[in-house]
Write the structure tokens for this entry.
Amino acid sequence: MKQQHWLKAAAEGDYSSHVLEAFKHDWQSKQSARTFLRYAVMLRNLGHSLNKSEAHLLYKLQKQAYVKLLLKGLSRHQIRQLNNLADELQNNTHSAQGVPAHSRRFALSLRAQQTPWRDTLESELNQAKSVVVVGNSPNLLGTDQGEFIDAHDLVIRFNQFSPTDGSDISKSIGKKLDIWVMSPGFRGTIPEHARFILITGPNMVWWQQNWQHLIHTNVPIIGIPLASWQLSVEKLAAPASAGFACLDWLMNYQRIANIRPSAMGFGYNPAQQSRYHIQNKTHQATSRHNWRAEQEVIKTWKDELKLNLL
């Protein structure tokens, strides 16, 4: 496969094993800092960690002078990626050189508190008698499900779930919010009444570089565990949508896998639906997600009685 083809495939959401192998082959044949880091980043995108010898090479590269790394062809962004990878592998909560100075103190605080925050959230999930995950499908409009949703012990919602034009759709989707799930690139309004924030993607607390949009948030911010993200990617051979990643984490991550959540507002099919989002008629679904595979897995979860799909 030509380089421009597999690079393009990865950027468009092809997370299959042959694409990863292309990254690895490129590094092994060229033996450059750029190709190694590109492979390491792709490996992490799939939810994997470096092996012992690869980690040793990463640490060796990290110790080199900043100017030398620039001369090796790494950009400033890539050097921050390098530092974030090394800090994560060592669970280093005392340094965040991979985060710009304006967000560094906040990032350090998040990383240091991940374990107690995750323990608290997992404890609440394990004690809850009912958990509902509310997607942003426009099919919820006019369903009068608001009271039913709010009656659950824990309510989980995603990104921009409430209208920005001031209209009230609470009769359809309810008002209660316990866990707010955000995509890493979300830059909309942060809901004030969330008790926890969960960032999807491969444990983004160790990967996100700019935290300015969340820096004044006063609730726990937790990343999807890398192991859980890996399970999702393996099912889809693509990056999971926020909704799929959250459901997979709830049902299949070993520390909280006894939950059988209810799910509403899921099931987007680009071949059958012109509208994707409940509150934004023009918002388009990203093509990087494997929507068909997500539908098939969700149906399997329903058939296996792991998920109450409403």
